[in-house]
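Let us practice reading a record.
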Amino acid sequence: MSRITDILNHNQTFVQEGQYKEYVTDKFPDKKIVILTCMDTRLVELLPKAMNLRNGDAKIIKCAGAIVSHPFGSIMRSILVAVYELGATEVFVVGHYDCGMTGLSSGEVLEKAKQRGIQPEVLETIAHSGIDLERWLTGFGKAQEGVVKSVSLIKNHPLLPKEILVHGLIIDPTTGRLDLLSEDGITAAEQQKE
Protein backbone atom coordinates (compact mmCIF):
# COMPACT_ATOMS: atom_id res chain seq x y z
CA MET A 1 0.00 0.00 0.00
CA SER A 2 1.32 3.42 -0.92
CA ARG A 3 2.09 6.03 1.73
CA ILE A 4 1.30 8.95 -0.60
CA THR A 5 -2.10 9.78 0.94
CA ASP A 6 -0.67 9.90 4.47
CA ILE A 7 2.23 12.04 3.32
CA LEU A 8 0.03 14.52 1.44
CA ASN A 9 -2.43 14.80 4.34
CA HIS A 10 0.40 15.47 6.78
CA ASN A 11 1.96 17.95 4.38
CA GLN A 12 -1.23 19.96 4.10
CA THR A 13 -1.39 20.30 7.90
CA PHE A 14 2.35 21.04 8.08
CA VAL A 15 2.01 23.97 5.67
CA GLN A 16 -1.34 25.30 6.96
CA GLU A 17 -0.09 25.38 10.55
CA GLY A 18 3.17 27.10 9.55
CA GLN A 19 5.31 24.29 10.97
CA TYR A 20 7.81 24.93 8.15
CA LYS A 21 8.83 28.32 9.59
CA GLU A 22 11.48 26.88 11.93
CA TYR A 23 13.25 25.37 8.92
CA VAL A 24 13.43 28.44 6.69
CA THR A 25 16.95 29.10 5.42
CA ASP A 26 18.62 29.77 2.06
CA LYS A 27 20.41 27.42 -0.33
CA PHE A 28 23.94 28.21 0.89
CA PRO A 29 25.41 25.92 3.60
CA ASP A 30 26.09 28.08 6.66
CA LYS A 31 28.99 25.86 7.80
CA LYS A 32 30.32 25.68 4.22
CA ILE A 33 30.39 21.89 4.22
CA VAL A 34 29.08 19.14 2.00
CA ILE A 35 28.54 15.67 3.43
CA LEU A 36 28.38 12.45 1.46
CA THR A 37 26.78 9.78 3.61
CA CYS A 38 24.86 6.55 3.39
CA MET A 39 21.12 6.38 2.83
CA ASP A 40 20.72 4.18 5.92
CA THR A 41 17.52 5.03 7.80
CA ARG A 42 19.35 5.10 11.14
CA LEU A 43 21.27 8.18 10.02
CA VAL A 44 18.34 10.39 8.98
CA GLU A 45 18.24 12.28 12.29
CA LEU A 46 21.26 10.78 14.08
CA LEU A 47 23.96 12.04 11.71
CA PRO A 48 22.97 15.73 11.84
CA LYS A 49 22.64 15.57 15.64
CA ALA A 50 25.98 13.77 16.02
CA MET A 51 27.67 16.41 13.83
CA ASN A 52 25.87 19.36 15.46
CA LEU A 53 24.09 20.33 12.25
CA ARG A 54 20.88 22.30 11.91
CA ASN A 55 18.77 22.95 8.85
CA GLY A 56 20.82 25.14 6.51
CA ASP A 57 24.26 24.18 7.86
CA ALA A 58 25.34 21.64 5.23
CA LYS A 59 24.63 20.12 1.88
CA ILE A 60 23.94 16.42 2.47
CA ILE A 61 24.21 13.88 -0.35
CA LYS A 62 23.02 10.35 0.34
CA CYS A 63 23.64 7.12 -1.53
CA ALA A 64 24.15 3.46 -0.73
CA GLY A 65 27.40 3.09 1.22
CA ALA A 66 28.48 6.73 0.78
CA ILE A 67 30.28 5.52 -2.33
CA VAL A 68 31.41 7.65 -5.26
CA SER A 69 31.06 4.93 -7.89
CA HIS A 70 32.07 7.06 -10.87
CA PRO A 71 34.31 10.16 -10.99
CA PHE A 72 31.90 11.86 -13.38
CA GLY A 73 28.62 10.60 -11.95
CA SER A 74 25.88 12.47 -10.12
CA ILE A 75 27.53 12.22 -6.67
CA MET A 76 30.72 13.96 -7.81
CA ARG A 77 28.70 16.48 -9.81
CA SER A 78 26.74 17.35 -6.66
CA ILE A 79 29.95 17.82 -4.68
CA LEU A 80 31.40 20.10 -7.36
CA VAL A 81 28.19 22.16 -7.52
CA ALA A 82 28.29 22.51 -3.72
CA VAL A 83 31.87 23.79 -3.96
CA TYR A 84 31.62 26.10 -6.99
CA GLU A 85 28.06 27.35 -6.75
CA LEU A 86 27.17 27.11 -3.07
CA GLY A 87 30.42 27.98 -1.30
CA ALA A 88 31.35 24.68 0.36
CA THR A 89 34.99 24.55 1.46
CA GLU A 90 35.08 21.11 3.11
CA VAL A 91 33.81 17.67 2.13
CA PHE A 92 33.00 14.98 4.68
CA VAL A 93 32.50 11.36 3.58
CA VAL A 94 30.67 9.62 6.42
CA GLY A 95 30.18 5.87 6.23
CA HIS A 96 28.83 3.78 9.07
CA TYR A 97 29.42 0.53 10.85
CA ASP A 98 26.98 -2.30 10.06
CA CYS A 99 26.42 -0.97 6.54
CA GLY A 100 24.23 -2.95 4.16
CA MET A 101 26.83 -2.49 1.41
CA THR A 102 29.29 -4.60 3.41
CA GLY A 103 29.59 -7.87 1.55
CA LEU A 104 26.81 -6.95 -0.88
CA SER A 105 26.69 -9.59 -3.60
CA SER A 106 25.83 -8.43 -7.09
CA GLY A 107 24.72 -11.97 -7.90
CA GLU A 108 22.15 -11.92 -5.10
CA VAL A 109 20.86 -8.49 -6.14
CA LEU A 110 20.53 -9.55 -9.76
CA GLU A 111 18.78 -12.78 -8.76
CA LYS A 112 16.26 -10.76 -6.72
CA ALA A 113 15.75 -8.47 -9.73
CA LYS A 114 14.90 -11.52 -11.84
CA GLN A 115 12.50 -12.76 -9.17
CA ARG A 116 10.76 -9.36 -9.28
CA GLY A 117 10.23 -9.61 -13.03
CA ILE A 118 13.37 -8.22 -14.67
CA GLN A 119 13.90 -10.40 -17.74
CA PRO A 120 17.33 -11.98 -18.37
CA GLU A 121 17.33 -10.30 -21.80
CA VAL A 122 17.30 -6.90 -20.09
CA LEU A 123 20.40 -7.84 -18.09
CA GLU A 124 22.09 -9.09 -21.25
CA THR A 125 21.28 -5.86 -23.09
CA ILE A 126 22.74 -3.83 -20.24
CA ALA A 127 25.88 -5.98 -20.23
CA HIS A 128 26.27 -5.61 -24.02
CA SER A 129 26.03 -1.83 -23.67
CA GLY A 130 29.26 -1.86 -21.67
CA ILE A 131 27.87 -1.63 -18.13
CA ASP A 132 29.49 -4.05 -15.71
CA LEU A 133 26.54 -4.84 -13.42
CA GLU A 134 28.69 -7.17 -11.31
CA ARG A 135 31.09 -4.35 -10.44
CA TRP A 136 28.37 -1.69 -10.18
CA LEU A 137 26.26 -3.68 -7.70
CA THR A 138 29.10 -5.02 -5.55
CA GLY A 139 29.62 -3.62 -2.07
CA PHE A 140 32.82 -3.56 -0.04
CA GLY A 141 34.57 -5.71 2.56
CA LYS A 142 34.47 -3.08 5.30
CA ALA A 143 32.76 0.31 5.41
CA GLN A 144 36.14 1.90 6.14
CA GLU A 145 37.42 0.72 2.73
CA GLY A 146 34.53 2.41 0.96
CA VAL A 147 35.06 5.69 2.80
CA VAL A 148 38.81 5.78 2.14
CA LYS A 149 38.24 5.00 -1.56
CA SER A 150 35.60 7.73 -1.91
CA VAL A 151 37.79 10.25 -0.07
CA SER A 152 40.69 9.49 -2.40
CA LEU A 153 38.54 9.80 -5.52
CA ILE A 154 37.11 13.14 -4.36
CA LYS A 155 40.41 14.59 -3.12
CA ASN A 156 42.20 13.67 -6.36
CA HIS A 157 39.42 14.69 -8.73
CA PRO A 158 40.79 16.90 -11.51
CA LEU A 159 37.96 19.45 -11.10
CA LEU A 160 38.20 19.82 -7.31
CA PRO A 161 40.27 22.82 -6.16
CA LYS A 162 43.32 21.68 -4.17
CA GLU A 163 42.41 23.86 -1.16
CA ILE A 164 39.14 21.99 -0.56
CA LEU A 165 39.52 19.79 2.52
CA VAL A 166 38.20 16.21 2.24
CA HIS A 167 37.70 14.10 5.37
CA GLY A 168 36.61 10.52 5.97
CA LEU A 169 34.67 9.34 9.01
CA ILE A 170 32.70 6.32 10.19
CA ILE A 171 29.68 6.79 12.45
CA ASP A 172 28.26 4.26 14.86
CA PRO A 173 24.60 4.01 13.76
CA THR A 174 23.48 3.38 17.33
CA THR A 175 25.43 5.87 19.44
CA GLY A 176 26.44 8.46 16.83
CA ARG A 177 30.14 8.20 17.78
CA LEU A 178 32.34 9.46 14.92
CA ASP A 179 35.68 7.81 14.16
CA LEU A 180 38.11 9.79 12.01
CA LEU A 181 39.58 7.72 9.15
CA SER A 182 41.26 10.44 7.15
CA GLU A 183 41.85 14.14 7.53
CA ASP A 184 42.10 16.04 4.25
CA GLY A 185 42.70 12.83 2.35
CA ILE A 186 45.45 11.53 4.64
CA THR A 187 44.46 8.31 6.41
CA ALA A 188 45.02 7.80 10.13
CA ALA A 189 47.69 5.18 9.31
CA GLU A 190 49.54 7.64 7.07
CA GLN A 191 49.31 10.33 9.76
CA GLN A 192 50.95 7.99 12.30
CA LYS A 193 53.91 7.43 9.94
CA GLU A 194 54.64 11.17 9.75
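A brief commentary: The chain is about 40% helix and 20% strand.
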